[in-house]
Design goal:
The protein is α/β, with parallel strands linked by helices. It is built from eleven helices and nine strands. A hairpin with a 2-residue loop joins strand 1 and strand 2. The model has no long low-confidence stretch (mean pLDDT 97). The structure holds coenzyme A. The site of coenzyme A (COA) has 14 residues, from helix 2 and strand 5.
Length: 254
């Protein structure tokens, strides 16, 4: 069974993270599959909305750490960058269903979705600092805008999880639902969107986002340069080594 499932029906393409045994952590192959699916959905006139979903118990544990060490992102044509550009520029409505842990890019990708439905078990975290890294996917721009600077600093500097209620309060999610219903609610909303005129949706989304589209693109690029450099520095090497060895990291020397 594939780690990414793609299904199109009734004008909606659904992208399902399907690697539950590894907490839906995302490999380079999965980034490629998701980037391709988004680009295809963008081109296909029969597709009028996209859903990104995981499992009722887990949305995504973020980057697959082992795969990340073996295949560090090489530049703007790497699979993770292709995915980040595809999702941040996606012109049609994008709906997410998120339950359980949403770590790293599992949370930051939601900043680029239009509607987000969360299970009451959703736990969002952006532990980039704990991994010796910096934020990605324009989260260093969009999280302070959404949460306010001090709450953003708490989320990004401490990297501690926050739960569905807090995400609802700051506007990261639209509604909290039972975890077993989240995917169905997202699907129903996407199908509702798919009945509306696509040209009006695309234009409305473009106008809402146009004020900072170039800032977002620049931030993704700046963050990417730092993230790529920091991946090979001692703090990240210690954090990733500790994760692979299932021990606590020791940052006392970095
Ligand atoms: N990369 C690779 N493998 C991962 C992973 C990741 N990001 N997250 C989880 N896994 C693997 C674990 O190694 C474990 O594999 P194993 O069964 O072969 O030992 C399996 O998925 C289950 O994970 P586990 O940690 O036992 O599940 P949990 O329910 O106790 O905790 C999380 C779930 C998501 C809170 C926890 O796995 C976690 O913190 N993961 C790392 C998140 C992270 O730092 N991501 C990087 C962001 S850039």
């Amino acid at each position: 069974m594939s780690d990414i499932l793609i299904h199109s029906e009734a004008g909606v393409t659904t992208i399902t993270l399907n690697r539950v045994e590894k907490k839906n952590s995302i490999t380079t192959a999965m980034y490629s599959a998701m980037a391709d699916a988004l680009l295809q959905a963008q081109e296909d006139t029969a597709v009028r909305a996209v859903v990104i979903q995981g499992h009722a118990t887990v949305f995504s544990a973020g980057n697959d750490i082992g795969d990340f060490l073996n295949n560090p992102p090489g530049g703007e044509d790497s699979p993770v960058f292709r995915f980040m550009l595809a999702i941040s520029n996606f012109p049609k409505p994008l709906v997410a269903a998120v339950c359980g842990p949403a770590v790293g890019i599992g949370t930051t990708l939601l900043l680029h979705c239009d509607l987000v439905y969360a299970g009451d078990n959703a736990a969002f975290s952006m532990p980039f600092v704990n991994l010796g890294l910096c934020p990605e996917l324009a989260s260093s721009l969009l999280v302070p805008q959404m949460l306010g600077y001090h709450r953003a600093a708490e989320a990004l500097l401490l990297g501690e999880p926050f739960m569905a209620e807090a995400a609802l309060e700051v506007g990261l999610v639209n509604r909290i639902v039972p975890p077993t219903e989240a995917n169905a609610v997202a699907q129903a909303q996407a199908r509702k969107l798919a009945t509306k005129p696509i040209s009006a949706q695309v234009e409305t989304k473009r106008l809402m986002k146009k004020g900072q589209a170039s800032l977002v693109a620049q931030q993704i690029s700046d963050e990417g340069a730092s993230f790529g450099r920091m991946l090979s520095e001692p703090a990240a090497r210690e954090a990733f080594g500790a994760f692979m060895e299932k021990r606590k990291p020791d940052f006392s020397k970095v």
